[in-house]
Fold this sequence. Notes:
The chain is α/β, with parallel strands linked by helices. The chain folds into 2 domains: 3-148 and 325-389, 3-Layer(aba) Sandwich (D-Maltodextrin-Binding Protein, domain 2), CATH 3.40.190; 150-322 and 392-434, D-Maltodextrin-Binding Protein, domain 2. It is globular and about 70 Å long. Strands 1, 2, 3, 4, 5, 6, 9, 10, 11 and 12 form a 10-stranded mixed beta sheet that branches. Strands 7-8 form a two-stranded antiparallel sheet. The chain has 17 helices and 12 strands.
Amino acid sequence: MSNFQTILVAIFLAFFVFAVLIFSGVIKIDGLTRDKGIPGGKVVVWGTFPSSSLSKIFDDISKDNKELNVSYKRKDISSYQQDLIEAFANGNGPDLFIITADMVQKNENFVYKIPYASYSEKTFRESYIDGADIYLDQEGVLGFPLVVDPLVLYYNKDILSNEGIVSPPKTWDELFILNSSLTKKENSGTISQSMIAMGQYGNVNNVKDVLSMLLIQNNNPIIERGEKTGYVSVLDDSSSSVFVSPVEAVLKFFLEFSNSGSAVYSWNRSLPNSLDMFVGGELAFYLGKASELFTIESMNPNLSFDVTQVPQIKDTKAKRTLGDIYLTVINKRSTNLTSAFGVATMLSQGEVAKAFGAAVSLPPTSRALLSEKPTDNYLFTFFNSALISRTWLDPDKAKSDVVFRELIENLLSNQLSMDIAINKAEGQLELLNKK
Length: 435
């Protein structure tokens, strides 16, 4: 047995004992093999990560715990939520399923929440990144954080070098200085090379994430979970003591990049998709996810690029980026809750969590693992970005995308004033919260 396998067995047995203590007297422990006192039964896990990446991890868990059979099924991201709803309705849902924050509201009734008396809030906060705190509510812990896919800044090294620019911007205000060197126009006024893609919706990749990140950097959580009121939209934070609300400040800043009279005019609706323009060598900065690294490399193997953390607000005391924080949750109707708990906890800590992150090429959410800084430049940035990642309780990923799209289009077309457009978007998000 390899060292990893030995660790795997030891960790699982430790977590299993913990699971028994948690569930003792609360549920029937069907997953306990009666003659040996070790974890047993079948645990089915659903998620959207490729099966080829994770098969060895789950196979090793089953192999080294003979009474336990853990299987993973990859679901298509476009139908994942509907698959879950149908499976739960039919009584054949998975024991564990992996979600992100935009799936919390829709699946809250299916999740076994671990009470704080069993797994303290302090322990959770000390174990995982601050952004994972969003998975704590009044009743307990929603699940166990796995990995995070942070928004980062990819940049074209050749474009910067050609203009004598030593390093990418650390703050947003630096873009106002850099744009005159990095955005190139033909005599006709057509943009042939762009500094950064912002200010439009249809041809800016990850645009809702970019807007969400800007809002979070401006201390607007977008959606809050109230103790008595449930989920509430705070997009239009009119109670703010500042003269300009965070959302208004974000929208004005974002739209400047498509304003032809602005010092940072670098984008318009006639340009290609921002990812295509970046891999084509005509975009200096691309706001993309860590998970897009291999896509960029495969689309243009000869592209000279690097990656760094997203720019921040000048003089900020708290760096922030947006990140998809993946969470393993337990189906409260699982027939093998104890073993499911053991598998879920093991996936989020120690060597297994490290192997999971490596398998899906994303940084872990475990503080202990993030303290082990990788030497690879890309991973080093991804790890540091994981620590400052935050997310929000998006009620419906697809429908909220329409809300943000309409908000931007209404402002670009001058169909609605800033106040009315924001108010409309706020009302639309509020309706999504109630569905």
